[in-house]
Design goal:
By secondary structure, the chain is mostly helical. It has helices spanning 3-16, 19-43, 57-85, 97-124, 132-156, 164-181, 184-188.
Length: 195
């Protein structure tokens, strides 16, 4: 049997499992990604002088704050598009098919915006557990990528409970907002998190 045939058989068997088992398995896969990122981030030796796109370490904070703000804006657009797709926006009517494609494209752009931020955070700081802001930010960053993996797997799965995909998308939007609050807003607010 070829490798491709084995993979198809595995996917077929996975599709025959009860929906709750498939959702739990996908959630477990996302949790594993988050835990692996956490372990790597804790084991990594930080290099606080690391820049971003050739910028100095301080200018990297400015650039990351701008990228994070753009990601937050796109996350808001994603939530609105998802609400339209699920017919939860009053007076919006049925979403045209292109809205689904737009939602996927914006999701890809949003994810791409987070990559340089995450790489810089990992290289410059790793997972930091020194104070509440750092703990929340570090753990939310790890969970974000685990949740992203879970959402991609959910999108590829069929016959799942109707709540699974909106919950995963909502979690991603919430994590983007939390990451922005503990980083970009912290910077814009004079290195202080507003309460």
């Amino acid at each position: 049997m070829t490798t491709g045939g084995g993979a198809r058989a595995l996917v077929s068997r996975f599709g025959q499992l009860p929906p709750t088992v498939r959702v739990a398995s996908i959630g477990l896969a996302g949790a594993i990604v988050a835990v692996v990122l956490y372990i790597i981030g804790r084991a990594h030796t930080p290099n606080y002088a690391t820049g971003l796109f050739g910028q100095t370490a301080f200018n990297a904070i400015i650039l990351k704050s701008a990228l994070a703000t753009a990601a937050l804006g796109l996350a808001v657009v994603q939530v609105l598009l998802a609400l339209w797709i699920y017919r939860k926006l009053p007076l919006a009517g049925r979403a045209p098919k292109r809205i689904g494609l737009t939602h996927r494209i914006i999701g890809g752009v949003l994810f791409a915006l987070t990559i340089p931020i995450a790489i810089h955070c990992f290289l410059a700081y790793g997972v930091v557990l020194t104070d509440t802001r750092h703990v929340i930010h570090s753990i939310a960053g790890c969970v974000f990528y685990g949740a992203f993996v879970a959402k991609v797997l959910l999108v590829q799965s069929r016959r799942l409970p109707g709540w699974a995909l909106p919950v995963a998308g909502g979690l991603l939007a919430l994590l983007v907002a939390l990451l922005w609050y503990t980083s970009a807003l912290w910077y814009y607010n004079g290195f202080s998190v507003p309460i």
